[in-house]
Amino acid sequence: MEFRFFDPSAKTEVTHGHLPHWEQMNAFYFITWRTADSIPADALEKWQAGREAWLWSHGIDSALEDWQRELECLPEAEHQEFYRLVTTKWHSMLDECHGDCVLRRPELSEIVAENMLHQDGIKYSMEAFVVMPNHVHVLAGVAGRGEMKRLCRNWKRYTAGRINAVLNREGQFWQWEIFDHVVRSEASLRRFREYVVNNPVKARLKADEYRVWTK
Predict the structure, then answer these.
(1) Which of 63, 126, 129, 138 is the most buried (most CB within 10 A)?
(2) Three-state SS for 49?
(3) Looking at the domain assignment, is residue 213 inside a domain?
(4) How many domains does the chain have?
């Protein structure tokens, strides 16, 4: 199946939680989800305030439902500035390894990795993923429109159940929301792949503290 990059003129499915989620037909996505204890509340609030300030300075009201459309339609230089100054800070907070970081354990990261590849080539085309101590990055082409969030829910539900069983725990394992981004170009796809592969090095992890896969 041929996957596509973000097209501002194409039909887009938009859903909302704490973050808006955009989905297009047969698109490439860079997706991140994290454990429930991965970012302290005060650090997250500070980051959200910074994001809203950046958006406001570029004429975008984050209180509006379609603010992400306005962001995606900004010139490439401004879009890259947002990623550098806002999105990168969010990822850096994850790399500080807050919380229990139980995914350092190889038998737990293996549960996630095996699930990532279970239906590769059927419902999606996996490009790369990394299981970090308290979060997961995925780069994949997802078949259909409106399937990305459903796919992520299934990944999270299955892995949370398996991991909680090993840990003899109950309750929320993953944070409810995901952080997703429709890939805009071939160059962006390469950058995201490099980020996924190099993330453990950036976070200064030991070889047995993460699990990475790339096509």
Answers:
(1) 138
(2) helix
(3) no
(4) 1
